[in-house]
Amino acid sequence: MSAAEPLVGGRRTPADLLLRDVRVLDPRARIDARHDVRVRGGQIAELAEAGSLQSAPAQAPSGEEELIDGAGRLLLVPAFFDPHVHLRTPGQEHKEDLGSGTRAAAAGGFGAVIAMPNTDPVLDSAPLLRSLRDAAAREACVPVGFLPAITRGLAGEQLSEMAELRQEGALGFTDDGKPVRSAGMLRKALQYQRLCGGVLALHEEDPTLSRGGSMHEGAVSAALGLAGIPTIAESTMVARDAALAGYEHGRVHFQHLSCAASVHAVADAKARGWRVSAEVCPHHLLLTEEHVRGMDTSMKMHPPLTTDADRMALIEGLRAGTIDCVATDHAPHARNEKEVPFEQAPMGTIGLETAFAALHTSLVVTGILELSLLVERMTAGAALFDLLTPIVTLDTQANLTLVDLDATWLAGEDGWESRSENCCFAGRQLQGRVLMTVAAGAVAHRDRALSLVGA
Ligand SMILES: [Zn+2]
Ligand SMILES: [Zn+2]
Question: Is the overall model pTM greater than 0.90, yes or no?
């Protein structure tokens, strides 16, 4: 087991709030009703019938209680959890850092995130993990957990010091950005996992099949004359690694599933009782290879956008629970890095600030998914990494997201909290806006529109 606290960072001032007449929706707590919610000293102190609580600033530890009137309309849900973000620290702070990345998270309603290790240098040693966690404790505005590398330098040749990294607070391990190419190496990592715990999160790609392609292999890549990546580059690795996890009784988490065949492989593994979980990104749920036709480099990501049939299978997988949770794979890149010909551009899109609104607009407003299911899947990532799932219940630390489901906005119109702007949803009209995020008991984000809601 890990000795250190699993998550570090977050603002320090405990919140004192009265959220009056908000629609509280928490599928795990089986609540969907109008309530008054009092947060006192960062804890959920009262949960009562709408309109029954009076403002009591004098009793707040801070001497001030912020009153927000939901008018029966604003939605209060458990804060979202993102198990897959790239904060680019250390080494690429021109793209993002712990402060800007976690501000972007809070602006999107995320109360905690897990950072990937493909930094410069790679996060693969205990001293670096210690210093990053110290930096996150100072700079992050929502709590951050870290997944150091499975293999040193992400080179796929030697395992990192997994036991020592777990002692320093590693939630698990990943070589994200790259696959663990060798089955033997992953098997060895699964054997060490038995001793030290922690989930192995896997970016699935067989490089002998993806071969440096820059988009999905299909009709659009043929029309554009771009080298394609076939979906079997992912699905064959998902099947392989599920079998390895089953054989070694290990636990693996499949990152950013992008195609129907991968969903089937995960469903098959789960049916066999193997301990696997999976995530899907908003862009794979909402966009397809057709969006690449304009050669917009913000549509270039790894794995690539696939077909509409794949997209429908991902939505169905999320609905059925074959896919456990939503993750953004928030991948910031500087403008000059993305403003190059499509084939040369780096892979990735930012996603923290648009995830909920984009999914709400295209899947919930249209009646494809229930709102409660979306909330469940946007919070389910925590438990997969042995963390407490945020829940709206008395006497627990407040991890809450306040949303105006009717508010519409143009993605990117006011700029981004992220340091980068490579967003595949930029310019889209979205419905649903995060007004406030309370993370680990403290207000981490307050939207400008909140003053208009006021009390
Ligand atoms: Zn990846
Ligand atoms: Zn990633």
Answer: yes
